[in-house]
Specification:
The chain is an alpha/beta fold and about 650 residues long. The chain folds into three domains: about 250 residues, Rossmann fold, CATH 3.40.50.12780; about 190 residues, Rossmann fold, CATH 3.40.50.12780; about 170 residues, 2-Layer Sandwich (GMP Synthetase, Chain A, domain 3). The chain contains 21 helices and 28 strands. The strands form seven sheets. The chain has a five-stranded parallel β-sheet with strand order 4-3-5-6-7, sandwiched between helices. Helix 2 crosses helix 7 and helix 12 packs across helix 14. It starts with 12 loop residues before the first helix and ends in a 12-residue tail after the last strand.
């Protein structure tokens, strides 16, 4: 593979920032909503703040090679702290802000962080709680001063004070900072991001300037991203996708990064900004669709009829119109009318009126959900990627977007399929190494730079598009030899607004079973309309009418699965509705909301055994973790139910 050279000498994120000051100096670079008001910084203003912050870090003693942990919600100053750390020759390490203190302790200890930048008192308290386990932390910098007045400030500083110190002492630090920036190369470490830890302890993924800049350049050119674009930065800052979109691509293209006021106001802020470039994991799109369906159930008869009528038109011709394929004049007119009456107002409500390019990734999205958004005229596409790839492995070109594939290899990326069906890639974005983990690095990336993804897939004949079946370790066989791919069924189940999460079991078994998490918002709304009283999630989940509703959904999914000869053996024969939501705090999901399948199999082994034993109910006790870290237990008697299975011809897996 050819080694790429930095474009025009732009060897680092600080170099891109300096370029943007010259080229886009007066254009908006960052916005943040606070107290209901949007504040804005141009590229020139942002660069001035970042330089002062970097000098403030130098005043506090930040050294080359130090690791700077960054914890908090999406805020311009936290993004700037990453760039400021890079200017000082240090390495930013963003952490998940909703992680409990114990999880943070592992990452902070593993990377040996001396500096921590926190958003507010909540994050500072977590650091103080674990400081005995990570004694190497020397400086804590916080953005929000509220509640911090009586803390011991011997090694704590408000970010405003750090910036002020940097400005006041710029004569002392100008030369040193310029020297450190000049020392940065294309192969200097840009960021270290920790994996979500689906199968074990998180691993520190070391990404270089080459990885981030080449990936940002290629992906931006692929989708014609430009300086006038607007993005909403609301995803966890510790996730590689947010780093590429809000730092990498933003610095490469010069587009504007908008930070919402809080998670609670995200949808309102999304509508106000009207982004032109939008990314969300499937869970966000699923939740939005659920809310739409809830509103439609509550709507008047005429409005509901109008919605159903024109959504039928949209499903039939919307994707073809979006892709520029020929449709009849009558269909064009019906879709035009539907856009005035339904699609346009709906897109405006969702905040998608101006979206030119939208992406979903992180997990497979249900094809029905994907098709719903494209039928509205939203250019939603799938990409396939990993932290180790600096996100991008494959992307879908305009006009070649399908629900069942993840597109073609991204520019500069090579993809191959091993004999066992596992997907491998290599590219300029391929990670340098796992920090302090040479064995895992060697087992993941070979000497030629090929990375094992852990996913099973194949290239379709004739199109060159990659189709991902499931995680390689999760794909198996049923007892009769037919293919078992749980994610395929789970995504179909999650299309229903009532179903928030599903976990399917069946490897080496005679038939499939599943756990269901109901969506409390959607099912609670349905219960209210049907005069069903309940006092808790647990009570509602076990209500006989809720059980019958879910039974109907599972039966419909079975009809759909039966139509696929390769996967027809994955129909769900028995199911139960869990008495609690799967939760990252309980170790059942990662912080990026991916199911930890092995943990669930071990934790709820008694429930799985009961499903396969044909029992109709089972008593269970489950340990849970509250937000403040305390432990408790939930006791419940769960109903186990059968589902209607459709006749299908099974095809043995090769």
């Amino acid at each position: 593979m050819n080694v790429t050279e930095a474009p025009s000498g732009l060897v680092s994120i600080p170099a891109l920032l300096a370029r943007n000051v010259v080229v886009h100096g007066n254009k908006a670079a960052y916005r943040e909503k606070e107290f209901g008001i949007w504040q804005s910084w141009t590229w020139a203003e942002a660069a001035e703040e970042i330089l002062a912050m970097a000098m403030g870090f130098l005043a506090l003693g930040l050294e080359r090679g130090d690791y700077v942990a960054i914890i908090g919600r999406n805020r311009p100053q936290l993004y700037w702290s990453m760039v400021a750390a890079q200017m000082c020759g240090a390495i930013p390490v963003p952490l998940y802000q909703d992680a409990v203190a114990e999880e943070m302790a592992y990452v902070l200890d593993h990377c040996g962080s001396r500096f921590v930048v926190c958003n507010d008192q909540e994050q500072v308290d977590k650091i103080l709680e674990i400081e005995g386990k990570v004694p190497h932390i020397e400086q804590v910098v916080y953005l929000d001063k509220r509640g911090m007045r009586k803390y011991d400030h011997s090694r704590m500083n408000a970010m405003a004070d750090v910036i002020a110190e940097g400005r006041a002492g710029h004569h002392r630090f100008d030369t040193e900072l310029a020297k450190r920036i000049a020392e940065l190369t294309y192969d200097s470490t840009c960021v270290m991001l920790y994996t979500s830890g689906t199968t074990g302890k998180p691993k520190g993924v070391v990404l270089s300037n080459r990885n981030i800049i080449e990936t940002s350049k290629n992906s931006s050119e692929f989708d014609h991203l430009r300086a006038g674009d607007e993005v909403l930065a609301y995803l966890p800052m510790a996730w590689v996708g947010d780093f590429i979109f809000s730092i990498g691509q933003a610095m490469w293209t010069g587009f504007c990064v908008n930070c919402p006021e809080s998670p609670a106001t995200m949808m309102t802020d999304l509508r106000e900004i009207g982004p032109t470039y939008f990314f969300a994991p499937p869970r966000v799109f699923e939740t939005q669709l659920t809310n739409v369906m809830i509103r439609m159930e509550d709507a008047g008869r005429f409005k509901k009829w109008l919605f159903d009528r024109y959504m039928a038109v949209a499903r039939r011709v919307g994707p073809d119109i979006l892709d520029g394929n020929p449709v009849s004049g009558s269909d064009k007119f019906a879709y035009w009318l539907g856009n005035i009456l339904v699609y346009g107002p709906l897109k405006n409500t969702l905040g998608f009126s101006r979206v030119r390019v939208g992406y979903t990734a992180g997990e497979a999205i249900g094809p029905e959900i994907f098709s719903f958004y494209r039928s509205l005229g939203i250019n939603l596409k799938q990409l396939y990627g990993q932290t180790e790839a600096s996100v991008f492995i494959t992307q879908q070109p305009d006009g070649q977007v399908r629900a069942d594939t993840v597109g073609v290899p991204s520019p500069g990326v090579e993809v191959k399929i091993a004999d066992n069906g596992e997907v491998f890639y290599r590219s300029p974005g391929t990670f340098v190494k796992y920090y302090k983990n040479a064995d895992s690095t060697a087992s993941t990336k070979d000497a030629e730079g090929w990375v094992a993804t852990g996913d099973a897939g194949f290239f379709e004949d004739g199109t060159g598009h990659l189709r991902i079946i499931d995680r390689a370790k999760d794909v198996g066989k049923m007892a009769d030899g037919s293919l078992f791919a749980p994610k395929y069924v789970e995504n179909k189940l999650k299309f229903y607004p009532a179903i928030l999460e599903a976990v399917v079991f069946g490897a080496d078994r005679a038939f499939c079973t599943t756990f269901i998490n109901i969506d409390l918002n959607a099912v609670g709304n349905w219960a209210e309309r049907n005069n069903i009283a309940y006092s808790s999630y647990q009570e509602l989940s076990q209500h006989p009418r809720v059980l019958e509703m879910i039974r109907g959904h599972v039966g419909e999914v079975n009809q759909s699965v039966a139509a696929d000869p390769m996967l027809s053996g994955c129909q769900v024969h028995r199911f139960l509705i869990l008495h609690k939501e799967l939760d990252a705090d309980d170790g059942e999901m990662t912080r990026t909301r991916k199911v930890r399948r092995r943990v669930i199999e071990e934790k709820f082994a008694d429930l799985i055994d009961a499903l396969y034993a044909g029992k109709s109910e089972i008593y269970t006790e489950t340990e849970v973790t509250y937000e403040d870290g305390r432990k408790g237990a939930i006791k419940a008697t769960l109903t186990l139910a059968d589902a209607a299975v459709a006749p299908a011809q099974k095809v043995a897996a090769e």
